[in-house]
Structure formats: structure tokens, C-alpha cells
Amino acid sequence: MPTALISDIHGNLDALEVVLADIDARGLDDIVCLGDIIGYGPNPCECLDLIMSRARWSLMGNHDFAVLYEPTSFNTSAESAAFWTRRQLEQEPDDAKRRRRWEYLGNLSIREDEGGHVWVHASPRRPINEYIFPDDVITAPTKINQIFERIERLCFVGHTHVPGVFTDEPDFYPLGDLDNLTYRLGRREKVIINPGSVGQPRDRDARAAYAILHDDRVEFVRLEYDIQAVIDKIKPTGELSDFLGMRLLEGR
Ligand code: ZN
Predict the structure, then answer these.
(1) How do beta strands 3-6 and 31-33 pair?
(2) Domain extents for the chain?
(3) pLDDT of 87-129, one tens digit each?
(4) Quick check: helix, strand or coil at residue 106?
(5) Tell me, which fold does domain 3-250 have in CATH?
(6) How far is the centre of ligand 1, averaged over its atoms, from the C-alpha of 209 (Å)?
(7) For residue 89, what pLDDT is reported?
(8) How many angstroms is it from 27 CA to the middle of ligand 1?
(9) Which pLDDT does position 166 carry in this prediction?
(10) Which residues, other chains included, contact 118 with Cβ-Cβ below 8 Å and sequence gap of 6+?
(11) 59 CA to middle of ligand 1, Å?
């Protein structure tokens, strides 16, 4: 059964709904989430509710962590978004709903291991916080090699919001290098796969991103959604920075 890999939703309900509709249209019902359900976007509660009901499990992302505990080393717009998001969760008038969301956030796992594969939000060394950037294969090959030493087979990460595949040469394949947006999995090869971000893509492609894991391949998907609708919800909050809407248009 193929598994839909979603990550970095960041409170962007409009993007999440389009992704879930595509997953449904393909008849997939196994969904796992690599974290950062909330933070940045204007619909944290709705996104949490959808992930709670649709995902088999979700991981703890650095923004989920920041809302739950404390934002550390966040820039100003990310930090104020974390505080705003926390207030939205706290202001829920329905006691049971409010408690369920906080409990879900508090119980997000740091790492999942399935079938010899590793699933983390950021990296196997620092599961919540370490970025594995595409450029690292050139500028920090030792870092990438050390990360690969911790992997038996496949590793799935989010966090950078840049979809693609890392191999242990080390090398990185952005989506533009993949035929039909598909990466064929070799039998023994180690790879790190980033499905990209549902709610805040940063590869200069504004479309929502997710991926589908099949037995023999990973298929990447990009989907248009109504970005203006998100921008229109960010403005009236008065606290979420306009930049958080503008960056969606540019996919950065
Ligand atoms: Zn993120």
C-alpha cells in the first residue's frame, strides 16, 4: 500500500485541503506527516484537526515544539507567529477540543522507525533542528556522510521545505532532475528523501508539495492552490507578518 508523505503544513489550510483532496482522488488512505503542522500560517487549529483525523502519525517539528514549549533561535516573524499560534490554540472555547489538540501536540513523536527506514522532521542526528540543505552535498560533504552513517536504508525528512533526494555519494537530486517527478529506489541504496512542504514551499515553486512512497519508487507531486486566500487571512490577524504571505507567492 503506498504511503502519502506530507510535511511542513505550517497552518496553511488552503494548501492542505488541496493536498488531501489529491490523496483521496488517488485512493490513498495511508498518510504520515513529518512535522511542522503549525506555525506561520493563519489556520493552525483547522490544520491540526485535519492531521489528527487523517494521518497515521505525525512527527514533532521545530515549530510544533516552539508553540508547545518556547521558540528558540527563531527570527522575529517566526517567533511572533509561534506566540500568535499558541494564542489561537488557547482561545478555543470548546474545552475538549482544546485539550485534544494540546495533547496531540505534546505526544508527537521525535522519530519513527518502520521497515528499516527512519522518519524524522529534520535529521537523524538532531531530529527536530538540523537542516539538511541541498548545498551541503558540496559545502559540507562530511556532515552529509556522517548523517548517512546513521541510516540503514531510507530516511525521510522535512524541515528545509525543499523537495528532492539525497544519495550517499553525496549528491542531491532536485525535482527538476527527476523524470516524471519520480525517483526509482534501488534495492540496497541509502537515500534521504524530502517530500517538500505542503504549506510553505521554498524551492522557488509556489505549488504545494508532497510525495508518495511506493515499494519501488518515490513519486513527487506539486499542486496549485489559492495562495491569495491565505494572504487575505494573514493580513487581518495584525500579528502574522505580511512577508509570510508574500513568500508563498514566490515559493521561498
Ligand atoms: Zn517547517
Answers:
(1) parallel
(2) 3-250
(3) 999 999 999 999 999 999 999 999 999 988 999 999 999 999 9
(4) helix
(5) Purple Acid Phosphatase; chain A, domain 2 (3.60.21)
(6) 13
(7) 98
(8) 27
(9) 97
(10) 111, 112, 124, 150, 151, 152, 154, 155, 156
(11) 12
Show Cβ contacts of residue 72 under 8 Å, excluding neighbours closer than 6 positions: 66
pLDDT for res 116: 87
Cα-to-centroid distance, 161 and ligand 1 (Å): 6
Length of the chain in residues, anyone? 252
Report CA(41)–ligand 1 centroid distance (Å): 11
Residue 236: all three cell numbers together? 487581518
pTM: 0.97
pLDDT score at 188: 77
Residues with CB under 5 A from ligand 1 (ion): 8, 36
Q: Pairing mode, if any, of strands 208-213 and 3-6?
A: antiparallel
Residue 227: pLDDT above 80?
yes
